[in-house]
Amino acid sequence: MGHSQAAKTESRERVLRITARRIREEGMTRPGVADLMKEAGLTHGGFYKHFASRDDLMNQAAALALADGETKMTEAARRNLEEPRTGLIDDYLSTRHRDAPGTGCAVVTLGAAAGRGGAEMKEAYEKQVQSYLALISETGDGDDSDEAQADAMLTLSAMVGALLMSRAVADPQLSDQLLQTVAERLKRSTAKV
Length: 193
Description:
Layout: H1 3-26, H2 33-39, H3 54-79, H4 84-92, H5 95-98, H6 106-109, H7 111-116, H8 119-138, H9 146-168, H10 172-192
Helix pairs in contact: 1-3, 3-4, 3-8, 4-10, 8-9, 9-10
């Protein structure tokens, strides 16, 4: 790869990483192309050298943001080898995760956009949901029954919902309580399994 091609690839990757962070922070409609390109240190005029359209950029950045979350969830599950689901729950429902949406789980921030989005967005979102369900199932007792799948769905839904609500409420105590209570209840139900 020539120097100019390598620089173009690096610039494109930088725009994608910045956009992935910004859509986790602000959603899909807020970041404008000119603003994103400026933050990447590029001119607005160079945008079409990298992407076919704003929708193209948003879809690719959303897929990147979603995939990034999978790595973090896998790492969280591996932190507590004795009880991997507990490690996953503790990491996901932490104040650190709540307070850092730009690097947090995109399943939380992109749910509404995926619901209104096209097939490409829905497929990327579904891929991550399926991946998270598989990971959560793996952190259980190894059972691959319908009951284990239902338990994984309940766990993921509770974690995503609690994180979403904890970011959305104005009362800091309620925000903390949402995270703590849901984490405690999920871990308690995991211990019973």
